[in-house]
Amino acid sequence: MSEHDSPTIATTVQTSETESTDRPTVTTGHPVIESRDLSVYYGDEQALQSVSLGIPNQQVTAIIGPSGCGKSTFLRSINRMNDLVDTATIDGELSLEGTNVYGDDVDPVALRRKIGMVFQHPNPFPKSIYDNVAYGLRIQDETENLDEKVETALKRAALFEEVEDQLDESALDLSGGQQQRLCIARAIAVDPEVLLMDEPASALDPIATSKIEDLIEELAEEYTVVIVTHNMQQAARISDTTAVFLTGGELVEYDDTEKIFENPEHQRVEDYITGKFG
């Protein structure tokens, strides 16, 4: 985990038919991202059920759970990527530093400049390494000291030393792990506040995965990082807090990562972590 001070986290979560049916309310001491009764529907199908949680600043928050439990849906709600799905509808509230990101006065494009995203499969543009990193800066007309900004982003992504002599070459010629670190450099070049990662290492070999994990821990010194992962060992290694989603888009438990993995409050979470289901 990172060396940041862990927030105080209070959880009130109902998980069985014998318990109250009130929805979860989960808070942290100083959340930078906060959802309140957030529900997402794709047509008639409910993908998230009244999720309420707060994500702390400059830490790594992992979101884990079985396939189809709403992990990626929640992640994509943060930067309004679900807006791109015609059948998606949103209920509830999700805020970034106290501002409702679904407010009528919020520009989704401007929002995504504050909230960078890295996807499961590396998706570099068919451009040079340099132009990939510079792309967002040029769109925002931030071209002053462009060389320095590109170099800084590549260094933060732990890639510069490997590519400094081939910046004019195609990004598509890089290895899979290098391409993913390039995508991270592209995301952080515009200096976002939050970095979302959707299974960023699932398509990589163990060595490349280890580099990405080390990089994530370093990035949390400057950014709020939220990572979706199927790899529970990965979540245990690199995250400060962990949210467990289970079938039907239900947030079952959210707490310090150590507590989630060593002493979860709910039997369903323990069963999932120990491999009894999921």
From TrEMBL:
CDD domains: ABC_PstB_phosphate_transporter
Tree of life domain: Archaea
Keyword Lipoprotein recorded: no
Enzyme class: hydrolase
Domain ABC transporter: 33-273
PROSITE patterns: ABC_TRANSPORTER_1 (PS00211), ABC_TRANSPORTER_2 (PS50893)
Region span, Disordered: 1-29
Residue ranges, compositional bias (Polar residues): 8-28
GO biological process: phosphate ion transmembrane transport
Enzyme Commission code: 3.6.3.27
Record keywords: ATP-binding, Cell membrane, Hydrolase, Membrane, Nucleotide-binding, Transport
Stored SUPFAM superfamilies: P-loop containing nucleoside triphosphate hydrolases (SSF52540)
A GO cellular-component term linked to this record: membrane
MF terms in GO: ATP binding; ATP hydrolysis activity; phosphate transmembrane transporter activity
UniProt protein name: ABC-type phosphate transporter, ATP-binding protein PstB (TC 3.A.1.7.1)
Protein's organism: Halorhabdus tiamatea SARL4B
